[in-house]
Design a protein that fits this description.
This protein is mainly beta and 130 residues long. It has one helix spanning 2-20, and strands at 54-62, 70-76, 82-89, 94-101, 106-111, 114-119, 124-128.
Amino acid sequence: MKYTKILLTSACLLQLGLYSCRKQEIVKAENGTAQTAESFASIKTPQNFKWATNNVINVQIQPNQNDTRKSVLKIVDAEGRVYMKKFHSANEAFTASIEVPSHIKNLKVVFGRVQKTFITSSSMVNLNLK
């Protein structure tokens, strides 16, 4: 019984060792040749490549002087992540700048029952509460 456990443990370790020593497959570029850079300066990027990992969005909320509603004002993305949240009165103006990841394409501004979606490429959110 004792030797059986040792034999099974050794076999498992041997099998694990043999499978972990396999060569990793190298995926080549589409044209079949791998491109290597000689130095960091030789790496070329397209002119329209965006290096920024986040975008700054300017938020402006236009007030409605005759409206006395008070509610939570929040800015969320399509997946529900909250980027800004505050208690706000509809008769007050509000201006802020928020940073969102550059892969976010749309933001939704929610004030009570009012919901409006904005595209982040314009880098401006302008909501009129009238």
